[in-house]
Amino acid sequence: MKTTLKGWLAISVIAVAILMSGCAGTVSNMRMLPAGSTVMPPEPNKALVVFSRTSGVGFAVQSSVFEVKNNRSSLIGILAAQTKLAYRAQPGKYLFMVIGESADFLTADLEPNKTYSVDVSPRMGMWKARFALEPMRRSDLSQPAFKSALDECRWVEKTAASDNWALGNMASIESKRAEYYAEWLEMPAAERPHLASEDGK
Fold it and tell me: 67: exposed, middle or buried (C-beta count within 10 Å: 0-12, 13-18, 19+)?
């Protein structure tokens, strides 16, 4: 029985979908920590935020995460699919941003001595992947499915190459921040993603 062109196309689409759903991404401009590495709890009187990309969708595209403060974007780190990074912060209010084809934002209230989790969720854009920052609630952190997906992510950490990448691309980063933050502010306040102080453990 011969397979038609439409049949081959359908098979190809299914194969690509399977690959995209389960592939880890290539890590560039970040240091991949050895398998089995762990991250220490928050330092005394500080908070810890774990940013992760548990999904393999958009594995060919990296996403960069920033803290926005005093109208400036400061790189936290760059995530490939199925990687995670730790951000140690002073307690307080924060605005975080993720950059892909577009920009998305998340506000946060961080308390001392707590660990928070934010998932960088891919959304397929017109030319490449877009990303959203999804705050994980305290109840999510103990769910077996999320814990398993997070455990499968490899730890990465920022290097001088990471900061050099951000510096070289800052004009584009700030342009996206200005454009998409204005759109984000037009959303009703209740619909803007927010990481609450009680979401930490």
Answer: middle
